[in-house]
Write a structure and sequence with these properties.
Strand content: under 5%
Low-confidence stretches: none
Number of strands: 0
Order of helices and strands: HH
Structural class: mainly alpha
Shape: elongated
């Protein structure tokens, strides 16, 4: 029987990697906000200029930006959840 647990201090640079991943999460959230603003403007412009194609692309962009924000925010929780699922197998 093998019993191995994650070792957060087993390699040099683990803390720096953790900091880098946190910074990438912030960049992802900032880009999601930017995408949401751009998509909302496209949605509003398309709706007010009788351009249904632009309005529908704006709506899709709003959904994609919100989904990206949800994934960035839930990434750690999702990984921890599936880690727990994997540990129970």
């Amino acid at each position: 029987m093998i019993d191995i647990a994650p070792n957060a201090s087993g390699l040099p640079g683990i803390e720096q990697l953790r900091v880098i991943v946190g910074a990438v999460m912030v960049v992802g959230l900032i880009l999601a906000v930017l995408a949401l603003i751009i998509a909302a403007v496209a949605w509003g412009y398309g709706a007010n200029s009788s351009n249904p194609h632009l309005a529908s692309r704006g709506k899709l962009g709003v959904l994609v930006a919100c989904g990206a924000a949800v994934l960035c925010g839930a990434a750690v929780t999702l990984v921890n959840f599936f880690w727990g699922v994997g540990q129970s197998v």
